[in-house]
Write a structure and sequence with these properties.
single chain, about 240 residues, alpha/beta, Spore Coat Polysaccharide Biosynthesis Protein SpsA, Chain A, 7-stranded mixed β-sheet, two-stranded antiparallel ribbon, 13 strands, about 30% strand
């Protein structure tokens, strides 16, 4: 099975951690976040892993090398200009000739990547999105109106949304929707599919998930990793 890790971002929201290191090398505990992902992918049977890189790629290559340390084959795809989160897949059009998993290189989760991959195969759609619940505590009292009358009041309610986890599975056919050399992001592809009435499969996950793209969430991920290290690293046999 094949997987692509999106590792080309500059990590501007994660400063000062990314002033020296590329975001995929920022450590969670004592291990770079992308190493955790690679270990998990290896456990679940993804042997060919493509790193879509750009920013500080030489540091990433120096650390991960060919991937043999983790029992995988690492391949590097380097963009010479920012192509977004979907555009880099077009550079791998000759390699991605079967269903493949795509994961952001800055998330911490205990999801089984094999489960979402198998779910995608069973559902038979072009695209599967890993989705989880995210709860946001509002800092204000929310007033519910009907015309000019107040009909309800909630003091600092918690709002629940379904959010993308940054984990996807694609059929290789989706590469036809990506223009060569053009920047394209996941939301652009989703909107294109919705406009053309192309079905998208939702894989709803209720386990642990952290997006470490900003300092607040990164610190929450650190606490979770410190308390439950074996939950995340059991996949690697450590």
């Amino acid at each position: 099975m094949k997987a692509v890790i999106l590792a080309g971002g500059e990590g501007r929201r994660l400063k000062p951690y990314t002033l020296v290191l590329p975001k995929p090398l920022v450590p969670v505990g004592d291990i770079p976040i992308m190493e955790i992902i690679i270990r998990q992918l290896a456990y679940y049977g993804f042997k060919d892993i493509y790193l879509a890189c750009g920013h500080l790629v030489e540091l990433i290559k120096a650390y991960f090398k060919d991937g043999k340390k983790w029992g995988v084959n690492l391949h590097y795809s380097v963009e010479d200009k920012p192509l977004g989160t979907v555009g880099p897949l077009k550079l791998l059009k000759n390699e991605l000739d079967e269903p493949f998993l795509v994961i952001n290189g800055d998330i911490l989760t205990d999801m089984s990547f094999l489960d979402i991959f198998q779910n995608h195969i069973v559902q038979g759609k072009l695209m599967t999105i890993g989705i989880t619940e995210h709860r946001t505590k509002l800092e204000y009292g929310v007033v519910h109106l009907y015309e000019n009358a107040v009909v309800d009041y909630e003091e600092k309610p918690e709002v629940v949304h379904h959010v993308s986890m940054g984990v996807y599975v694609f059929a290789p056919y989706i590469l036809r929707y990506i223009e060569e050399g053009e920047r394209m992001d996941i939301p652009d592809l989703i909107k294109k599919f919705l406009d053309e009435d192309i079905g998208i499969n939702a894989y709803i996950y209720k386990g642990r998930w952290f997006d470490i793209g900003n300092t607040e969430d990164f610190e929450r991920a650190l606490l979770s990793f410190e308390k439950e290290r074996d939950i995340y690293l059991k996949e690697s046999g450590t």
